[in-house]
Amino acid sequence: MMSAEQTARYVPDRLKSPAARWVKSWESLLIVVALAIFLVNSFASPYFLDPWNLSDASFNFTEKALIAFAMALVIISGEIDLSVAAIIALTSTAMGYAAQAGFDTPMLVAIGLATGLGCGGAIASQPRYEERRVYVEPDYYPEPERRVIYRPAPSYEPWTQSWYRYCSQRYRSFDPNSGTFVGYDGREHFCTAG
User: Three-state SS for 145?
Assistant: First the structure.
């Protein structure tokens, strides 16, 4: 049993459970949206869940999925390559010409792989033009050290002509009769020149 001083308290800096984090994640939102689209389409059309419709949709999606997968790998590696779609177009064109010429399916697959590997090898073997960064020692001339020269304050003997001149120029409230001036504290101080 807890005493009156020991009460349970909420600590806001603790992490939430993995399930709670997943529910609020971006991926879970995408899954919910995909399921919602699937359910709406299945109720909207009786042909949506037909096996022929599903195979046709996946057949049309396959090329785009291959391009997206390859581009995702390229982008994840930190590079950029716009030739993925061009290689797929060239490969499918070569396979189409081979199919018109009467080649069978294993040969078409071999032609497609050979065309893709040839294009990928040609792209990978290109020379990389990188700027070589060479450190050049700059012309460095250190600035001369600044020397601070302290001159001693002038020292004047009280009640002399130079003392009067110094104190009247330095303090606006200087009284030459008493030799004093009014400071910031409001009191009178004797002018000591030096």
Answer: coil
Give the total residue count for the chain: 194
| Tokens of residue 21, six digits | 């984090």
Q: Report the distance separating Cα 68 and Cα 74, nearest Å.
A: 10
Give pLDDT, residue 59.
82
Helix boundaries (H) for the chain: 18-23, 26-44, 51-76, 84-101, 105-124, 161-170
Sorted by sequence, the CB contacts under 8 Å of residue 9 that are 6+ apart come out as none
Instruction: Report the C-alpha gap between 159 and 178 in whole angstroms.
Output: 10
Region for residue 78 given its phi and psi (left: phi exceeds 0; alpha: psi -120 to 50; beta: otherwise): left
**Triad 146, 150, 151: Cα angle to 5°:** 135
Residue-wise burial string across 81-92, b where 16 or more C-beta atoms lie within 10 A, e elsewhere:
eeebeebbebbe
Residue ranges of domains in the chain: 66-124, 161-190
Contact (CB, 8 A) for 88 and 67: yes
CA angle 45, 46, 52 (to 5 degrees): 105
Tokens of 155: 């020292």
Can you tell me which residue has the tokens 């459970």? 17
Amino acid identity, position 174 = F
d(CA 139, CA 34): 64
The model scores a pTM over 0.90:
no
* pLDDT, tens digit (0-9, with 9 covering 90-100), for 114-136: 999 999 888 888 777 666 777 77
